[in-house]
Specification:
Structural class of chain A: alpha/beta
Oligomer: homodimer
Number of strands of chain A: 11
Number of helices of chain A: 12
Largest interface: A-B, 64 and 64 residues
């Protein structure tokens, strides 16, 4: 039985180093995955000369030319109105029209979400799609965190929907059998936090997810892996994610400094180097690149804007898994279940 | 010229390991600082037998007996009403009455702030006192972060007052000459964030602090040291602090794992050990223990509830510095300046 190829729409104008990292990222994926076809959306005069250097892509791509770009500081409302022929919009349109199975972009997050919402529409019963990803934790499973920045302010209904979607994402994308859900708060007692957080906890306790609800978790629980899914508003979620990145970077810098402190410590580093690289690899943000815009009729993956080709290839791999797992079909089923 | 002794009121019923860590912490401080006298508030039947084991404290303390304790999960409103003879309340009363220069407690944070507000009252023009501390950063100065959890929701006026107090704290407690202020947000563009954050930015831009205002900072900027003072609401501040603690712990665990991976990497660790300990010491939360309740007519310092005697001694040292620096006098002057 011949499987249908997965068609991936790639925005070749998003991020700091497009189109190079996009094409190079596709090349990395192409060398290990045979069943994919790439649709490159962007300026063909820039893509064509580059793409010849990547032999694995031969006969496995289509270029759809456009010279309209959405800049990284464009307001989402402007991007929506003026960017109808932009590489980002065309890539998402392709998902809508069934020409692609998934779209991947390293461009302006606000614009990407705004366009995805208008073009693909939210899933039934979802008020606000969110950005979701998995954060490295002390267990090896990863902690699902949402929302990571699409929705600055969230009421309890929206937080409840995040819980439902996060639960589905953990089951489907991370293969966690019976995911535990926590709401991010500043203490574990019932009276802690704001109204939205407290009411969301009540909504979960009254729903089908009640047995999966752990209760409130605190900031340190994200990396500890106390629960599988951490639910929070996009303001706190985005800041938490960046605090994790910043702290990991600081500790790494401190160690670099330690190892170069003396001749003896340099020798120590050389001996432990392989083990250190192996253990700290799971903190490499490139290997966690690729966040899903969850809660839409169609799969869209956001790559970090500043990533390199390895990072972008990881975002493409995330996109492929989500398509193979039929993520949206499964989320829709979960949502139907949780309504009953 | 003989200097007056600094009188420190210590709550001997707060935290996981009171009164032991409180007395032992005082002993550590007593061995290096001669000009301090300790007031121990708590159960004398527990304090008396312990205190004999600490020779440096001899003739340098007074025990004020009470058997009323505020538990760690007591609601602040209940603690206020029922805890009028509690060790925490009596310690703060002592500051109010001038019997002590400062109070230190490892007890229930919400109760401590509620009691401090009622007993000491906020400084003129301060609506909401905050919890402030310094976070280790990649520069060596430390980043002042407030609020760390006293005020879950904050409007723009409150955030502006945090900026004024944080600026004063950085100048006085951290000796930073011309502190730069940032507001924590999810992007650097003007349109990012919520109303409170955007309006607070405008208030700072229109104030005397305008030249000290950097703009918005993101989560990773806290440990990067982009600015000296990071202003945020207590919900986001508390979560950020705990995310930093959790991430540092995870990275440390990963390294421990790396070093024990093979015989060779164990040797590497032994060689680099001293350098590693020296470099990573600045991440030790005990050495950053001691957060000020800022914006009150009187100095109160909060210790982490789960700390040990070294950590508690650090909180006492913070308290002593704040008293010596006449922190509240200086903040009042700053506040008068910023009003003009």
């Amino acid at each position: 039985m011949k499987e249908e190829k997965i068609k991936i729409a790639l925005d070749c104008m998003g991020g700091d180093n497009a189109p190079k990292i996009v094409i190079e990222g596709a090349e990395i994926v192409a060398s290990s995955k045979k069943d994919v076809h790439f649709l490159f959306y962007g300026d063909s005069s820039k893509i064509n000369p580059l793409i010849k250097n990547y032999p694995k892509l031969k006969n496995r791509y289509t270029i759809i030319h456009t010279d309209q770009e959405i800049s990284s500081d464009e307001k989402p409302s402007i991007a929506l109105r003026r960017g109808t022929q932009s590489s980002m919009r065309l890539a998402i349109n392709a998902v809508k029209e069934g020409e692609a199975d998934v779209a991947v972009s390293a461009g302006n997050t606000g614009a990407l979400m705004a366009i995805a919402k208008i073009v693909l529409r939210p899933l039934p019963s979802i008020e606000r799609p969110a950005i979701v990803t998995s954060i490295p934790n002390q267990k090896n499973s990863g902690t699902v965190l949402l929302d990571m920045g699409a929705n600055v302010e969230c009421d309890s209904d929206v937080l409840f929907q995040f819980a439902v979607m996060g639960h589905a994402f953990a089951k489907i994308a991370l293969k966690i059998k019976d995911p535990k859900i926590g709401i991010l708060n500043i203490g574990s007692e019932d009276l802690k936090g704001n109204d939205a957080v407290r009411s969301a906890a009540l909504l979960i306790k009254e729903s089908d997810l009640k047995d999966n609800f752990y209760g409130y978790v605190e900031g340190n629980d994200i990396t500890k892996g106390t629960v599988d899914v951490v639910v929070t508003d996009g303001f706190t979620g985005n800041i938490s994610l960046k605090v994790i990145e910043g702290t990991a970077k600081m500790v790494t810098e401190l160690l670099r400094e330690a190892f170069s402190r003396s001749f003896i410590s340099k020798i120590g580093y050389l001996l432990a180097k392989t083990a250190i690289k192996k253990s700290t690899q799971k903190m490499d943000p490139r290997l966690h690149n690729g966040a899903m815009l969850i809660g839409l009729n169609g799969v869209v993956v956001k790559s970090h804007g500043g990533t390199d080709s390895l990072g972008f290839s990881n975002a493409i791999s995330v996109a492929i898994s989500l398509v193979k797992d039929k993520i949206n079909e499964q989320i829709s089923n979960e949502l139907k279940g949780s309504e009953s």
